[in-house]
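agent> call fold_tool(seq_1)
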Amino acid sequence: MGTEFKIPNIPASTNPKRDIAKISKEREKEGLEKLKNEEKKVREMLKEKMEKNSNNIPWDHNDHSTTHNERILKKFPSLVNNLDNISFSKEFLDGRELSELDKEILKYSIILHDIGRSVPNTKNHALSSRKLIEKMEGDINPKLKKNIALLAQLHTPSGIKELGGKSLADLVDKKTITKKQAYLASILTIGDALDAGKARVQKNTQGEFARKVINKIKKTYSRGIAKSKLEH
């Protein structure tokens, strides 16, 4: 007779929760590594796309080129470190510690948040950004890609409205987004708003200097519209 086949006796885990946590950490590590490995390709893709389609970005807007993203990235570490001191941030997250993966997701959303402006005649560039990011090729975990895309959409009021909310906090209350997603989106939004200094307003995306743009605005629009544009 042949040798009897027996199913090997595999002992049950003594701590299933620890096993799940281990798997989760391994997946997080893998996701983080892939994001870091893909970053150079993503930056190159973005630069090419934004430069090729720069004329789709209104000439009477301030700089929305990739240099805008780079300036936000320089501010991002201090934003993460100091946001705990801002009282409104407490409504988004009870424990606001960010993992390395959270920070990398946020970094990607900063890099890509304006990619939707490359779409011709887009009426909601934040939503266009989300769609382009979700379709982006590369070796990035689809769930992480969706998270990055969502943050990009959430950086404008129109993007929030598209999801049926009045604010990030409203979307959290409706359970449309998590507190952590709201917190990350708030960092992106603040960083975007803070990049309103001399470096951003001295040229538009097409590289025209501010004085030339101001003169064009005055010649192109009525006095009331021109005044409104120049004030913003």
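agent> call fold_tool(seq_2)
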Amino acid sequence: MWIYFYAAHLLGEFIFQSDQFIEQRKNKPIATLIKHVAIHALLMGMASLVIAFANPSVTSATLRSLGQAIFLISISHYVIDYGKMKLSKKMNRVSSQALLFLIDQILHFLSIIFVLHYFTTSEWSFMDNIQVFYGDFGIYEKIAATICVFILATYGAGYFLGILLQNMAPNNELQEGIYRLSDEKTEVKTKYESDGKKETEIITIKTEQYFHDSPAKIGQIIGMLERTLIVILMMIDLPQGLAFLAALKTLTRFKQFEHKQFAEYYLIGTLSSAMIGILLGIVASNIW
């Protein structure tokens, strides 16, 4: 049962939370947080209807218990997000922000698990719900679990990587939409005169390349598509397709690899993204 509520949580956390909504948190944090929690409660209410549809044996008493669970989960969600909001102002390091994001998501997950376990323990046990990741549950649970995997692989991983890599991106911006890649090479040439005298010539070659940046968020979209394809390839048992995917992505940035800082940034981002995609792909393959 918890998988429906967790899918609702991820929808509210990533899909129904726009950039504009996040910006509003800076000016009206409490009001925006209340709206955010209300959206989660509404989505979990819809998840309860899905549970009732998928399980005809669900009684009105169970639905009342789910309503109570939604209320308690909403309160815990508010408390967790409020605590995160306060801590984020004091934790400015990238590693701290990334860790805070992970802790926040883990706490939300655990609150859903334990609250639902408390209110529905007479009909669904904690261990029975875990079986959804071992392929022993019904089609609706598997669909909900797969939705969770793809949301985490796209929006969730993208948000996390955005935090993790925010200080690693090359700072080559000249003006909005135009970037510069600079490189410098030193060549040392040695030659000998007829009298045996040695002469050394040092040549420094500096190159600068100017290019227009891609449209806004295009890199984020590419990353989301990349992880989506990785999950799909893992689900259909075609891991060899990962090599083609990596080669295709590399071709689009080949010229920029001459810039060491960009190459390192690209490598860290690509490996991190691929690792997340592969791990979630393994989870998705076990669902089905």
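agent> summarizing second result for user.
The CA atoms of residues 117 and 124 lie 7 Å apart. The first strand starts at residue 173 and ends at 175.
agent> awaiting next instruction.
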